[in-house]
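Sample entry (402 residues):
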Amino acid sequence: MFEFFIARRYLRSKGGRFFSSGALSAIAGIFIGVAAIIIVLSVMNGFHQELKVRILGLTPHIIIAKYSYDNIENYDSLLIAVRNYPGVISAEPFIYTKTIIRKQNTSDGIIVRGIVADAESEIISLKKDIVQGTFDLSDNNVILGIDLARSIGARVGDEISLVAPFAGEATPFGVLPRLKNYTVTAIFDAGMYDYNTSFVYTGLKSLQDFLGIGDAVSGIELKVKNINATDKIVKQIRADLGFPYRVSDWMSMNRNIFTALRLEKVVTFIVLVLIVLVAAFGIIGLLVMMVIRKTKEIGILTAMGAKKKSIVKIFMLTGFMIGLIGTISGTIFGVAVSFILDKYRIINLPGDVYFIKNLPVQVALTDVLLVLLIALAISFFSTIYPAYKAANLIPVEAIRNE
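Predicted structure, serialized as tokens:
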């Protein structure tokens, strides 16, 4: 096919061995745009995945509680029932309450979670986040977040007090607060500021005694096999239990965070695609200049019997080859850089600012394919105007003007 042969010749320099300077600049524009999109999207995917892992480390996949936030009593039958649902790995009771922590003259508002210590690893990965001390929630022991421990000056082995303002006995002067002393056995670092400054973990039985709620619990927490299929399990449990039970999964509990991240990724993608659009104007400019320079040749081809369709093909192939070379080379470079950043973790981040120490990178095949298709589509459409401009030249006029 002679159109391809001529298009290939138009891309070469006068010597015929390398690309012309104009073709190289257009290829470089597409190359930079595609590589930048893939690298940035891979970094954002890495951040999203790292955040998801951190959240799931201390958040159950599914939580069953009451709408009124009342405690659940006689939960044994409920516990047995939810454990038998397809896809559920384990289910355990928990207590969730807000209270006050105090050490000497320092106090702070906190969230206390009472968990079944022996089954902790079945639901969350608190043990993996321990940075000081040992995991021990027996008796009256607690585990604090690292930033909370710093703010109140608590260390492993220290004694702290939990104060429940409205859990004490009623008197003519009002409800007396209830106070109980605990020993700090470990300090955890979840990598997320909100958890490190607010959460305290203790044994389920110990917290029940402190709050004076008997054998009642705040709810049931579940772990499932497929974290991306929690919505189906939630719908099934919600339909079976009905009111007054409220069933939530980890995605709905963190919807604001993940919605913001998705929006950020979409906006970033759109902004980066503009780089490819700018590069596409380079292709248009190159082809227009090529049409002007090759006017005589176009006239000769037309006079020799070449149809308008063939002229269009020549210039569309010329522009599309520029886009194809730039897109493929940019994709290979972007993916290669992303894999290198992910494997060797070259870029370090300040741990006191971010919740991770190294730049996380994750290449998503869907993102790469989407970038490929968009870049090739932009390259293709940018060839239409110059190609038809060349095809509409009048042969006699083209030769005479030269």
